[in-house]
């Protein structure tokens, strides 16, 4: 009876039980509705789930001379998706190579023609620049000559007055 009193006082006060008591903590102790004065301790029993049984995969080591070693050629039916993959024959690859080279030649020829056109335009602009530059120098010389003659005539008219 003294043990019952100790267990009840532990669960009601939240203190740690004495070494002789059976309760683990306040949360694990519960009272049953039929016995208002007794405490029952619930302890979970852990169980591990069973693993499913599997067949043995056999030895992983294969002898060197075995026929199971190496690539396996698979035959696919005409309706199999794997048979419809975009694999190309050597003729297809040669044809594609010729088409790619021809396209590259056409592209290079177009680039060369545009380069020649740009070069011709540069030459035309250079000739125009040289022509305008020589005209500009001629006009500067002409204006300079006019200014010097106007200074001479202006100085001569002052002297007469």
Automatic annotation (TrEMBL):
A Pfam family reported for this protein in Swiss-Prot or TrEMBL: DUF2205
Keyword rRNA processing: no
Compartments reported by the entry: Cytoplasm, Cytosol; Golgi apparatus membrane; Golgi apparatus, trans-Golgi network
Keywords, ordered alphabetically: Coiled coil, Cytoplasm, Golgi apparatus, Membrane
Coiled coil listed as a keyword: yes
InterPro entries with a match to the protein in the record: SCOC
Region described as Disordered: 1-94
Main location: cytoplasm
Topology term for the membrane: Peripheral membrane protein
GO CC terms in record: cytosol; Golgi membrane; trans-Golgi network
Biased composition (Low complexity): 19-36
Family, per entry: Belongs to the SCOC family.
PANTHER family registered for this protein in UniProt: GEO08385P1, SHORT COILED COIL PROTEIN
Reported function: Positive regulator of amino acid starvation-induced autophagy.
Protein's recorded name: Uncharacterized protein
Record organism: Hapsidospora chrysogenum (strain ATCC 11550 / CBS 779.69 / DSM 880 / IAM 14645 / JCM 23072 / IMI 49137)
